[in-house]
Amino acid sequence: MIRRLVLYVGNPANAATLKKLGYLSLVLVFLSDFFVHRDHAIYLWDKIPGWGAFYGFVSCVVIILVSKFLGHQGGIMQDEGYYDD
What we know:
Layout: H1 2-10, H2 15-32, H3 51-72
């Protein structure tokens, strides 16, 4: 069962179908946020539908950009042949 799933996901011929399923799931999760009661919200931005998804996406992009900057410009990353010497 797991083997068939891994082979299906890893097959490049199924990439378009998997991409469509991914986008569909994102849209469904975003639309489901409109049905959540916002009575418990304290801050203004907590009352905006889809705020959590937007905030999470932007936060993830910022984390990736900061880590790439630190790795390349901050001197943390080593050359590929560093351990071969």
